[in-house]
Amino acid sequence: MTSSAWVGERVRLRGREPEDWEAFHAFEEDSDAIRNGWRLAPPTSVARMKKELAESAEEEPDLDEFSLVIASKHDNAPVGSLNTHQVDRVHGTFAYGISVGTPHHRKGYASEAVVLLLRYMFFERRFQKAEAWVYGSNEASLALHRRLGFVEEGRRRRSHFANGRYDDEVLFGMTVEEYTERYA
Q1: Which of 64, 108, 145, 146 could form a disulfide with 150 if both were Cys (CB 3.0 to 4.6 A apart)?
Q2: What is the pTM of this model?
């Protein structure tokens, strides 16, 4: 039996498919979860969501800067997504974002998806450091990153506005050596 670098015990990281539109459209209904991830936007129509998913399913993937679906290994249904961004090949750093739909919180999907992503970026793409920005009020994500072994490296005070209040952004980082010590 062959194994995939993209499959863990609970999750499978995969490309977006046009039929994923319904799950992602439903995830948009939780405004607090959306605010925790980035910013609240006006609702997306079903037609627009279908078009976005169909177009992204057809895009040629980039090896370093990409967006993936976090799917349940059990039934391949979307439970969230993660993406890489701010990729700096010169310095060997990248940032990532992760979002798991509210019905799927606290089931281990996020932690396993992050570990799979880091393994790929560190051991296949030769990056040496991962970064993640987390809003100071997002207690679940702060706890996740600490539990995964990320180091809090800094804080941008009052740099995010949502739901009538300003929030700090907390920078977390993990080096390839820290990852290897913990997960390899």
Answers
A1: 145
A2: 0.93
Q: What is the pLDDT of residues 18-63, one digit of tens each?
A: 999 999 888 888 888 788 777 788 888 999 999 998 998 898 889 9
CA 1 to the chain's CA centroid = 28
Q: Which residue ranges form the domains of the chain, and what is each CATH number?
A: 11-183 (3.40.630.30)
pLDDT per residue over 119-154, tens digit each?
999 999 999 999 999 999 999 999 999 999 999 999
Q: How far apart are CA 59 and CA 69, in angstroms?
A: 14
DSSP string, 76-128: --EEEEEEEEEEETTTTEEEEEEEE-GGGTTSSHHHHHHHHHHHHHHHTS---
What is the tens place of the pLDDT at every residue in 146-167? 999 999 999 999 999 988 999 9
Rounded-to-integer distance, Cα 33 and Cα 19, Å: 22
Rounded Cα distance between 25 and 84, Å, is 21
Q: Could you tell me if 170 and 136 are in contact, meaning their C-beta atoms sit under 8 angstroms apart?
A: yes
